[in-house]
Amino acid sequence: MSEEIKKCPVCLSEKNALFDQRQFRSHQVINRVCGSCGFVYQSPRMAADELDAFYASEYRQVYQGKAGPTPKDLFMQNGRADSLLDILSAQGAAAARYLDVGCSSGILLQRFQDHFGCEVVGVEPGDAYRAYAQKQGLTVVPDIADLKGARFDLISMAHVLEHLPDPVSYLADLKADYLTPSGLILIEVPNLYSHDSFEVAHMSSFSAHSLRQVLGKAGYNMIALKKHGRPRSEILPLYLTALAQPKTGAPGYRLRPERNVALKRRTGLLWRRILQKLLPRRAWVSVAQVRE
Ligand SMILES: [Zn+2]
Questions:
Q1: CB distance 246 to 175 below 8 Å
Q2: Which of 14, 54, 223, 272 is deepest in the core (most CB within 10 A)?
């Protein structure tokens, strides 16, 4: 069943305090904040075997009541692809071999393939989404270990890192086993200071600061960070998108603790409520034209 996380997933400190407690669907969700570095993580949380079963089938149903991609889902993924391509273009990025971890229905793979003319491969543990992507002619495997030996010069993880039990190790393994030495990693996560964040499947919640710390500890330099709401909002900074590259030179990284995390969360959500009141149409882009 559920497991208690005794050490901070980033700095390994055992000091922590209750940060948020709520009901999400039928689940009790408890988040704690690290007393040393300020990282926010769920504890107790689902154990590894429970998580595997959850993603194999339950996840999409919990979120959408269906086992395959809905029109709204496809609309969101296309909007997200536009946004990620804009961020990459602004950095002059290119790719020859591209891997999308958590590729869902494969829209990002198709869009990147069209844009860069690159070879694309996806990882998707969810059976229904993987089958859908494969039906589009894409190469998609259930587990990244199935790609052992392959190297990619661009790897993306859009709305994946917050789901992983150990984000630092996962990113370090990507660097060691799958990314070329000068490759790029593109990561998007919900922003703790604007997004609701505390869902049952979110093991961690990131601020711009903690995302930088996690990347640094895993052996990357962050080269760009964008706070934005695309495709859901024109003005709310719901998401954090980071572009990073493997660090060269001496290993090791000195963590910089983040302070006043609770205050920043409260302020961020207050600002969000104000913007929703003042500019409702810009705060939330209508997806009503998309039929379920
Ligand atoms: Zn910590």
A1: yes
A2: 272
Q: Calculate how far, in angstroms, residue 188's C-alpha sits from the geometric centre of ligand 1.
A: 21
pLDDT digits (tens, 9 = 90+) for 228-279: 999 999 999 999 999 999 998 777 889 999 999 999 999 999 999 999 999 9
Kindly list the domain boundaries of the chain, sorted by start residue.
Answer: 48-283
pTM more than 0.85: yes
Neighbours of ion ligand 1 (CB under 5 A): 8, 10-11, 13, 34, 36-37, 39
Q: Residue 13: helix, strand or coil by DSSP?
A: coil
Distance 210 CA to ligand 1 centre (A): 9
Tell which residue, 8, 10, 20, 18, has the closest CA to residue 266. 20
Which of left, alpha, beta for 85 (phi over 0: left; psi -120 to 50: alpha)? alpha
Instruction: Report CA(256)–ligand 1 centroid distance (Å).
Output: 10
DSSP state of 82: H
| 211, 187 contact by CB (below 8 A) | yes
User: How far are the Cα atoms of 116, 142, 157, 237, 242 from residue 207, in angstroms, in the given order?
Assistant: 30, 29, 16, 11, 11
Cis upstream peptide for 257 (omega within 30°): no
Phi, psi (deg, nearest 5) at residue 173: -65, -40
